[in-house]
Amino acid sequence: MWRANTAVECKAKRGIMKGHQEPRSSSSCAACKFLKRRCTPNCQFAPYFRSDEPKKFAKVHKVFGASNVSKILNEVAEEQREETVNSLVYEAEVRLQDPVYGCIGAIASLQHKMVELQHDLILARARLACYVDQQQRHDSESFFDIDHVNMAPLVDIQEPSAGVVDAFDYNALPFDQFSPFQFP
Amino acid sequence: MQAFEEEMPSDCIFSPYFPANNPRRFAYVHKIYGASNVGKILQDLPVSRRAEAADSLYYEAYCRIKDPVYGCVGLITILHQQIYDAQCQLARIQAEIAALSSQSQS
Predict the structure, then answer these.
(1) Complex ipTM, two decimals?
(2) Which residues form the signal peptide (chain A) (predicted)?
(3) B69 contacts on A by Cβ (under 8 Å)
(4) At what angle do helices A81-97 and B73-105 cross, to 10 degrees?
(5) Under an 8 A CB cutoff, do B79 and A111 touch?
(6) Under DSSP, is residue B88 helix (H, G, I), strand (E, B) or coil?
């Protein structure tokens, strides 16, 4: 008589006695554990939701739902699915932290910071232009040595710039077309 | 919302934010989040915040449909990179100013 010596063997034996062909897998992915279903060898979620990361799937499930995640994964190429899952997890986390704005809040904050930086850059470039201009003036003035009889030809001194130098190309930035509240 | 017209009561949670004259708006959020999840998110918020939440959900859904791999997270990545580049540029210019400033003082 076969004796079950361990807990696993007990379970297996009960499974066999009940007529099940195989015991429930102890290596279910986090998604199947959450959904309380059997994790098959070709489970779509298993590569991306390991069993030791239960919260990852829980967050994605709460915001998007398992079937929507499955549909999104089916739409992308297999080599891009890991990136897709990572971005879905990130989006879900941010949405759970900020249920009103989600990632849009983060985008708005980054855009604001970008505008501030552009402003700082404009000021810094203008200041640099002033310094460069001062330097050029100083260099050209010191070139005229008044102790020498033969004066050197006049240096062609250009008018200084208006002060506002080239700033960022606003058109290159995505936030013009992705401004938070300019909806398609 | 027309897809759910017959099932939803007139005081449904979606109607103020997903009008029938803009079916694409609800279609997008339904495709990405599902009506049930959107309803739960809105339900958990005070009424005064629901319009903004519906707008942001619509925008994120739109981004995800346009870019199924990265959604709006792609934009966040781009902005982070551009902020980093701008900070580097600013640091370079400030270093140049400091160098010129000390040069002119000496």
Answers:
(1) 0.83
(2) none
(3) 76, 80, 83-84, 87
(4) 80
(5) yes
(6) helix
- Residues A142-171: b if buried by 16+ CB within 10 A, e if exposed: eeeeeeeeeeeeeeeeeeeeeeebeebeee
Whose structure tokens read 């279903």? A37
CB–CB of B29/A60 below 8 Å? no
Q: Indicate the SS3 state at residue B68.
A: coil
Task: Give SS3 for A170.
Answer: helix
d(CA B12, CA A130): 62
Nearest CA in chain B to A174: B75
- CA–CA distance, A126 with A81 (Å, rounded to integer): 46
DSSP state of A51: T
Q: Which amino acid is at A56?
A: K
Q: What is the pLDDT of residues A73-110, one digit of tens each?
A: 999 999 999 999 999 999 999 999 999 999 999 999 99
- Domains of chain B, residue spans: 1-66, 72-106
Q: Which residue of A has its CA nearest to B22?
A: A184
Tell me how far apart the alpha carbons of residues A125 and A167 are, in angstroms, rounded to a whole number. Answer: 8
